[in-house]
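Question (not urgent): is this output format expected?
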Amino acid sequence: MKRFPPGFLWGAATSSFQIEGSLDADGRGPSIWDSFAGESGDTGESACDHYRRWRDDVDLLAEIGVNAYRFSIAWPRLFPSGVGELERRGLDHYDRLIDALLERGIEPVVTLFHWDLPQALQDGGGWRSRETVERFAEYARTCFDAYGDRVRRWITQNEPWVHGILGHYVGMHAPGEKDFRGAIAAIHHILLSHGRAVQELRNGGRDGEIGIAFSLFPTYPASDDDADREAALICDGYHNRWFLDAVLRRSYPVDMERLFEERIGALDFVRDGDFDTISAGSDFVGVNYYSRGVVRASPGHEPLPYEVVSARDLDVPLTDGGYEIAPFGLTDLLVRLRADYGDVPILITENGAIYDGAPHDAGRVRFLHDHLAAVHEAIEQGVPVRGYFAWSLMDNFEWALGYKPRFGLVHVDYATQQRTIKDSGRYYREIARANALVEAEGARS
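Got this back:
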């Protein structure tokens, strides 16, 4: 049996806007996602009604048997305008949630920002403005003061690439902008805000660990041609190295700086001393992994000269959402992180897949088994992985895709809000209780 290290975190993950609903409850202010609907036309107005049903959901976590729960705090619930007077009712909500988790022996792992920026700050420039960095630092300090006596692990930012590029360049996520220069500036300020939050935690003399969660995307050339190899390197720089180097190496990668300057001009939003702040510390790196990318050269493609080959055009196994099932990519990624960046501890802060079946979801059971085997392989090769968080605890509002994609270990009937634990949730419970990769019928792909 493949056993995991003592003290390994077995968790499930969610985010506030994807599950809470109750957008006008207890003084909450509007966020950039409140009125933004993607191609589905859906909004988060109801989501999973977690804001009212949170006690039942804590019971679900206990029933699944996890010892950690990653969730995010909704910035607009604490500061309806992003700054100014604190809304105590919002603060108290998360206070109660944290206490209830601890009473059940579940460690709260708190994400400070999971994309629900207060609309008032967006009106002032959002993440394209350095002013938002300081507002985030004030918000982070408030959270540390309120919950730092009980929260041991903090995640500052979730997936800066996704929020920066899909929200500010592609336009398929809120705030719906389509400006590449603005997207790169927003990403810089998001990374800067990570460092400012680290400084706030450290300067306050508080205990606890703090890190950042990246959407990492291992890249593989579509062929042995030099052009495809270079394309894969560029894709890696765009998705991975731009973020990892900034936080862990105190600089952006030189090749990517040159490419960006060719396309958007001087990176004059980067100021002296910024990298001292960005690299103020990361006690761990959060890895959000869903699949890999097969990359080929595509001169003239925007914004960079490559394209990712659709998994549907490859002879590979697919999830019901059309993503390649590539657990080997997770092992490769984790081993690469240790080789390139040293022994920084790693949390798998998201890993999951879309499968339609419920409550019988054999595909997700196999996905969990194979990806946890991939994590175990990396640990055996010396990678310091400290925990794994399944995405997600329950089916939820999947941003631009609405309510159709099902990622949950728990099925949600959106008409009645009834929760039903899927086979994958029961299988995950066996793994968490054993702290080992338990075999399950049909688990091997």
